[in-house]
Amino acid sequence: MANKISKISESEWEVMKLLWKSNPLSSEDIIHGLSPKHSWSAQTIKTFITRLSNKGVISYKKEGRLYYYFPLFSKEEYIKYENNSFLKRVYDGALDMLLTNFLAEKELSVEELEQLENILKDKKQNKSSD
Length: 130
Prior knowledge:
Elements: H1 10-21, E1 25-26, H2 27-34, H3 42-54, E2 58-63, E3 66-71, H4 75-91, H5 95-105, H6 110-129
Family: Belongs to the BlaI transcriptional regulatory family.
Keywords: Coiled coil, DNA-binding, Transcription, Transcription regulation
Coiled coil: 99-130
């Protein structure tokens, strides 16, 4: 993963979801993919594409008169960046505080609790074997 990933807006995230699903895409492909879900104009969507390119989150290849856009980071890499950014910004990096607040506020199903237990057990076993 590159050293610096730029923060993206919720609207830009919509463009990225399309590009993570299928790429490369032309601006027309992106416009057609987003138009049914949002009331954004073609120019607004092109502005999002330009912003993402300027932020270094996407790039393009030119074929004739068309530009085809593709992501420079996987969805997983970006989610990891966002998670770490949120943790640092809101909880000063204190994961235990995040988990404590999350668990106190959210009603979890038995299946979700079991899944969390399994994740914690796996983490603990991996630490023990280090």
